[in-house]
Amino acid sequence: MPSSHSHSTLPSRSLRTHLLVAGSALVVGCASILGAGSAAAGTSQNGYPLVTQAQTTQWAVNGVNFWTAPGKPTELLREFVTWFDANIEPITLGNGDDWSWAEPALVPPTNATYSNHGSGTAVDLNLEIHGGQGFSGTFTPEQAGKIRAKLASMGGQIVWGGEWSSLPDDPHFEVR
């Protein structure tokens, strides 16, 4: 239906486009200033893109399901988890004590980057036995030696949270 007004009160199309572009730049700039870090880029700490669960590959070891990023992350993590189950300890406790993909969440204490679980590139194994962030020394020296040897044999492509000095995380393994 035609307008009954002879003059439009809207700015010109060109001006509206410039305002939209400037407003978008302001939003992106504010996100960076406020510490969105990798959130603005949509990546986790290791640089992999954040994914939804629907974008992951589902696989199982010893009846426990995992969801990881398709391709190399799934290949590496499946190899390691299968080996861990056979050579370190079974991962059959269940009760949600084995984690893989999770909704993207910022990592404390800085909240500047997203967890690698959000990109499907990390797993936590047997949390009921090995605690979580802040826990170290929960594996026997023999188990720890085997884990280090396996990770070395995989070319260092997986990192063990149990080796972190600032905030150890014994059950955590992630793709580099």
Write the layout of secondary structure elements.
Elements: H1 13-33, H2 38-41, E1 57-61, E2 64-68, H3 72-87, E3 122-124, H4 127-130, H5 141-153, E4 158-160, E5 172-175
Antiparallel strand pairs: 1-2, 3-5, 4-5
Structure description:
This protein has five helices and five strands. Helices cover 33% and strands 11% of the residues. The chain is of the alpha+beta class and 176 residues long. A three-stranded antiparallel beta sheet has the order 3-5-4, covered by helices on one side. A two-stranded antiparallel ribbon has the order 1-2. The chain is globular. InterPro entries: Peptidase_M15C, Zn_M74/Hedgehog-like. Residues 112-175 form the Peptidase M15C domain.
Q: Tags for this entry?
A:
Peptidase_M15C; Zn_M74/Hedgehog-like; two-stranded antiparallel ribbon; 3-stranded antiparallel beta sheet
State the helical fraction: 25-40%
Computed structural class:
alpha+beta
The averaged pLDDT comes out at 78
Tell me the fraction of residues in β-strands, as a range. 5-15%
Q: Could you give a short description of this structure?
A:
Residues 112-175 form the Peptidase M15C domain. Pfam families: Peptidase_M15_4. The chain is α+β, with helices and mostly antiparallel strands and 176 residues long.
